[in-house]
Amino acid sequence: MKINGNYANIQQSYLFSTVAAKVKQYSQEHPQADIIKLGIGDVTLPLCSAVCDAMHAAVDEMGVQETFKGYGPEQGYGFLKEALVSYYAGKGVTLMPDEIFISDGAKSDLGNILDLFDRDNTVLVPDPVYPVYVDTNIMDGRRIIFADANESNGFLPMPDKDTDADIIYICSPNNPTGAVYNKQQLKAWVDYALARQALILFDAAYEAFISGDLPTSIYQIEGAQECAIEFCSFSKTAGFTGTRCGYTVVPAGLERGGMKLNKMWLRRQTTKFNGVPYIVQKGAAAVFSPEGQKQIRQNIAYYKNNAQVIARTMRELGIWFTGGENSPYIWLKCPGGMKSWDFFDYLLEKANVVGTPGSGFGKNGECFFRLTAFGDAGRTLEATERIKKLIKNDFRG
């Protein structure tokens, strides 16, 4: 028996587990500390009433013989897929129901999609980056190269003609930096992928935070249906972090090596996945009802207001940052040239505020730090006041 030795090559502690452990230890040593958490990107507002009502009705259906549901279609119920078809039509994107696959979240699919690809492929990911992109490929033993995201390019790296990649990860709005690509920038990535017969894995988990004419789907870019798979989630859109539902779009015409990726993914899902519960999918479908859209937009506006509060604080302090406008994340440059984990300890110990060290997202994240807008509005305001007072005293005095 042989094990997968690639697991020895990944960091033994997941970034957010390390953050949680450090906060727990500090709390035990300082039980009176009033800690405000602006770190892990979990939502805090409850599911909207339209979603809850739909799920309650679905529970009742499951208790009646005539409406009881057993095993459902692994790729998702038609009512939810049709709702997503209409949602994409509102973006100017035409999809067929069979191109949409319902899942238990974007994180799962971003890892599971790798079942379709040979391990000899070269993978391009931005640095800094959401750790799942890197770790799942290391587990499979693929070669990973990095696109250089940094302060000078606003943490939005562009294609390098001298770089040859087979699989390309793009997240916009980006986690952790909050930066968002415009249409011209995404078109450059699509053209790059088409020229090399490469494949873009586009993470759109935060698309609901975008306003204005910035693209919310890769398929709003000409040619993308020939080179991209899109992943999205109800977690940040509608607060499903504890309910678990997402979806992946695999265009019917997307083909590599003489094989249709849509059919491959269908085969993979029907073999290895039993589908998302009916009750959850009914709740997800309610997100696209007129009342559901109104309610989730109110929740997103709440978080965006928190982001603006944090962004205003950074501007007042003269701290460089990205995000905070079309994203729930604020990616800031640590004051005084501090290292990321040093700044984490500094904020925790002196302000009792928790964020996420940028170095945990890659080497280019060193000396940067992520704050999230998913907290309570009052607590977020309190956290920024603490940060403001601390930074002014120690770095602006």
Please give a handful of descriptors for the protein shown.
single chain; 397 residues; alpha/beta; seven-stranded mixed β-sheet; four-stranded antiparallel β-sheet
Fold topology:
Elements: H1 15-29, E1 36-37, H2 49-62, H3 78-89, E2 100-103, H4 106-112, E3 122-127, H5 131-140, E4 143-148, E5 167-171, H6 183-196, E6 199-203, E7 228-233, H7 234-238, E8 246-249, E9 255-256, E10 259-260, H8 261-272, H9 278-286, H10 290-317, E11 321-323, E12 329-333, H11 340-351, E13 353-354, E14 356-357, E15 368-372, H12 377-395
Parallel strand pairs: 1-13, 3-4, 3-5, 5-6, 6-7
Antiparallel strand pairs: 2-8, 7-8, 9-10, 11-12, 12-15, 14-15
Can you give a write-up of this model?
It is a single chain. With 397 residues, the protein is of the alpha/beta class. It is 40% helix and 15% strand. The strands form 4 sheets. Strands 2-8-7-6-5-3-4 form a 7-stranded mixed β-sheet, sandwiched between helices. α2 (49-62) packs antiparallel against α9 (278-286), α3 (78-89) runs parallel beside α9 (278-286) and α10 (290-317) runs parallel beside α12.
